[in-house]
Amino acid sequence: MKEERSRSGNGFRVAINRRGARLLLASALIASALAGCSSASSDKSASEAAKSGAPTANSAQHESVSAGAADQAGGEAQNAAAASSQNAPPQGGSFTGQTAAEGDDAYSRKIIYRANLSMQVENYADTETRVQEAVKRSGGYVLQFNESTSASEKSGTFVIKVPANGFQSLLVELEKINPSMRKSMEGQDVTEEYVDLSSRLKAKQLVESRLISFMEKATKADELVAFSSELGKVQEEIERIKGRMRYLEQNVSYSTIDLRIAQKIGSAEAIGAQERGPLAKRASAALQGSLTVLNVVLQGIVVVLAGALPILVLLVIVAIPLWWVRRRRKAKLASVRQRLAEENKTE
């Protein structure tokens, strides 16, 4: 009997323990469910609160969205520019460390060449024709030409643009035309400026693409206006950079030559080279020169008198009445003095 009672008591205890475990598990599940509901309700209330305060936040966000977008795009542009500068090869070389040929690499050495030449010739017209032909053979062209003639010389100045690969050959051709010409050459290395412009262009283009994407996503009118204004400034800067790059590329691909051709007229050398001729001829030439000088002097005097004629007429018109008045006063004074002298004699 005692064993049966103990067994029944143990079974009852085990049943009670199982029920307690089940109750504890159920209570845990209920607590977790309640916690989830409370968190959901708190999230819902937070979202409702956010929605209620959305107008103020959105207005503030709309006011700063363009600045934030511009800052973000600017940061990305700076990163892109830095990466481009780091990845760019050294000046005058390629990524492999070998010297790159001009035009093979966007970052190859870019140098603008310019030469100044001066020729003293005996026949100006013939030299000018030969220079024009040499420029055509080299593939260049005359950008500017000025010609002047004075009493002592006839001269012309040329501004010649020639492809860079024909620059040296044209200098050789011009030196053959006049071996005694004076020349000077200079080169301007614009590689660093060109690389910097390329990096800035990539950065600005990245900013442009970011602003365009922001405009596509914008839903407010003020956002569109802000993005459009920023985009206009960026595009203007891009066009300015492209223009400068095109200018550098054109001056690198075409070198410049400033040429001056001069022929002396009536110089001492030319006079000494001419035949003297007979005495009568030389005397006639000297007399003719003197008459020419005298003619020039007389013409100058006539021109001066013609210019002063109105003033002289005005002076005559004013001086004649003054002279007549002064003469009458002198006549009256003379008659008064004569009368006084006669009266003194009679007394």
TrEMBL record:
<keyword id="KW-0812">Transmembrane</keyword>
<feature type="region of interest" description="Disordered">
    <location>
        <begin position="40"/>
        <end position="101"/>
    </location>
</feature>
<keyword id="KW-1133">Transmembrane helix</keyword>
<keyword id="KW-0472">Membrane</keyword>
<feature type="signal peptide">
    <location>
        <begin position="1"/>
        <end position="35"/>
    </location>
</feature>
<dbReference type="InterPro" id="IPR025645">
    <property type="entry name" value="DUF4349"/>
</dbReference>
<protein>
    <submittedName>
        <fullName>DUF4349 domain-containing protein</fullName>
    </submittedName>
</protein>
<keyword id="KW-0732">Signal</keyword>
<dbReference type="Pfam" id="PF14257">
    <property type="entry name" value="DUF4349"/>
</dbReference>
<feature type="domain" description="DUF4349">
    <location>
        <begin position="109"/>
        <end position="324"/>
    </location>
</feature>
<feature type="compositionally biased region" description="Low complexity">
    <location>
        <begin position="40"/>
        <end position="54"/>
    </location>
</feature>
<feature type="transmembrane region" description="Helical">
    <location>
        <begin position="296"/>
        <end position="325"/>
    </location>
</feature>
<feature type="compositionally biased region" description="Low complexity">
    <location>
        <begin position="66"/>
        <end position="88"/>
    </location>
</feature>
<feature type="compositionally biased region" description="Polar residues">
    <location>
        <begin position="55"/>
        <end position="64"/>
    </location>
</feature>
